[in-house]
Amino acid sequence: MNICTAKNIGSKSPTLALALLLTACGSEKAAQISAGQMFYEAACSSCHGEGGLGDGPIANLLPVQPPILFEHLGHHSMDELVQLIRSGLPPGMPPAPLTDDEIQLVIDYMWEMVPDSLIAELREMQREAELGVSMSMPEDDINGQENSSANHMSGMTHSEQMEPSDTNKH
Questions:
Q1: Which is higher by pLDDT, 126 or 168?
Q2: Bridge-partner residues for 91, per DSSP?
Q3: What is the torsion angle, in degrees rounded to the nearest 10, for the CA atoms of residue 20, residue 24, residue 27 and residue 33?
Q4: Which of 78, 83, 105, 133 is packed most tightly, with the most Cβ within 10 A?
Q5: Average pLDDT of 160-168?
Q6: DSSP conformation letters of 95-121
């Protein structure tokens, strides 16, 4: 692909053009991850934190504590994840100001944040979610501690899953 082709595509989809230009400078996977990181940092990290642990700089100011994003990767199909990010999740998560392609890049980047010890199990859970199979969370969270809320999370609505944050923290 030459610069003129990327320029023509860029007029239709700036995100796609950025990804194509990054691809020209390196591997396609690295370019996608880099673009996903850029969109994640712009739209998600202030609440969800750099590592997706729900510990961003404004997390404690929200009406609910942002969840650990890895947990959602296993509990939702790809279409559900895109819809959740696109539409937001009241009362704490606003709709993301991203296109579906940009959201896909963010989701790909989120997978890069998952600890190696959880990738296979979460990928299997997501595969089952794609098939509509009931699933359960890993017994251990990313810190190796028992995850008491995750064991009953799959049957709950998102608003039930989110824990209220302490609004008296400042």
A1: 126
A2: none
A3: -40
A4: 105
A5: 41
A6: PPS--HHHHHHHHHHHHHHS-HHHHHH
- Indicate whether 50 belongs to any domain: yes
Query: What does the block give as tokens for 70?
Result: 């890895």
Tell me, yes or no, whether 90 lies in a domain. yes
Give kind and range of the element (H or E) at residue 7.
helix 3-12
E-strand ranges in the chain read none
Q: How many domains does the chain have?
A: 1
Instruction: Read off the tokens for 95.
Output: 């709709």
Burial status of residue 48 (CB atoms within 10 A of its CB: 0-12, 13-18, 19 or more): buried
Q: H or E element: which one contains 33? A: helix 28-43
Whole-angstrom CA distances from 9 to 2, 14, 28, 39 are 11, 7, 17, 19
> What mean pLDDT comes out for the span 15-42?
78
69 backbone dihedrals φ, ψ, rounded to 5°: -65, -30
What is the structure's pLDDT at 70? 85
Find the distance separating the first CA and the last CA of the chain, reported in whole Å. 51
